[in-house]
């Protein structure tokens, strides 16, 4: 029997395809179950509180991006697209709920930023990863539409965390997996 060579991965960690496939599966699974109570569109008081908290969490992450960009201007070009997407998450989560993001959540003091650019990127990646993990747990208790929204935002956060790590950008510079 001929032996086939084994393919070795050039870099550790998940590939973009597997990351996106996994998050797409999570979105499909949450779309299959509507655990919402209340009126027909799943707008219970618990769902509104969950949505408001998610909006506040995104607003806090947005402040962190702004602080890193202000402290490390050379990173602005790399961070701006991710920051803008987080800003859209704040809008979608706040606009979809009847409870807007409180002004105190968007005007809080800037969080501390590490002095080195790599440490600042690591801080953002950690914040994105933790928020994506928390949202993954929250969507289990959310009604259908909100669960799908949280799954989508969590998937975006997981992708952001991956892109913010050095491993996530090495393949792009070297022409890796697209």
Mean pLDDT, to the nearest integer, reads 76
Biggest β-sheet description: none
CATH homologous superfamily label of one domain = Ferritin, core subunit, four-helix bundle
Order of helices and strands: HHHHHHH
Annotation field: number of helices: 7
* Content of β-strand: under 5%
Uncertain runs: 24-41, 170-178
What's the β-strand tally? Answer: 0
Radius of gyration: 18 Å
At the fold tier of CATH, the topology name of one domain is Ferritin
Compute the separation of the termini in Å: 34 Å
CATH architecture of one domain: Up-down Bundle
The CATH class of one domain is Mainly Alpha
Q: Which structural class do you get from the secondary structure elements?
A: mainly alpha
| Global morphology | elongated
Give a brief outline of the structure:
By secondary structure, this protein is mainly alpha-helical. The protein has seven helices and no strands. The radius of gyration is 18 Å and the shape is elongated.
Q: How would you explain this protein's 3D organization?
A:
The chain is mainly alpha-helical and 178 residues long. The protein has a domain at 43-166: Ferritin. Helix content is 67%, strand content 0%. The chain contains seven helices and no strands. The protein has helices at residues 16-31, 45-71, 76-96, 103-106, 117-138, 144-164, 166-173. Helix 3 (76-96) packs antiparallel against helix 6 (144-164). It is elongated and about 45 Å long. The model is unreliable at 24-41 and 170-178 (pLDDT under 50).
